[in-house]
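DM from R.C. (forwarded with permission)

"hey, sorry to bug you on a friday — could you get me a structure for this? deadline for the figure draft is monday and I only need the backbone to look sensible"
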Amino acid sequence: MAEAEEELAHAEVLELFQAALARLVQDPLLCDLPPQVTAEEIGSQVALEYGQAMTVRVCKADGETVPVVVVQNASVLELKKALRRHIQLRQARQGGVQHLSWKYIWRTYHLTYAGEKLADDRKKLREYGIRNRDEVSFIKKLRK
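My reply, with the result:
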């Protein structure tokens, strides 16, 4: 009986949280976010507003541009992880392909900025000269 009460209490808390989140997303600062927003997305949007984060536009091979939010001093690896999270969230919301092999993607493609490969995952985006709203491209690697 106690477990049923805990589950009910959890369901009620979840419902209250979703309602509060829906009200929060109506704020002009957060109105661009999707209805099923995550706490991470809200944090990123607030950090962006306060200048603690930047948007890097990643240009895919099919011409689509994906806006990815990362902290100001992010490394190439952090950009890759943020891109992965962004794509996975979008796919989950749209009901598309559920699994992508990111190992295959990074083995087949690399990111470039202004003609330079972002080869070192530990290097900061700032060291490559990447700033807010700059565009990074996916380029297919040439076979050796």
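R.C.: lifesaver. The CA atoms of residues 61 and 138 lie 6 Å apart.
me: no worries. The first helix runs from residue 2 to 25.
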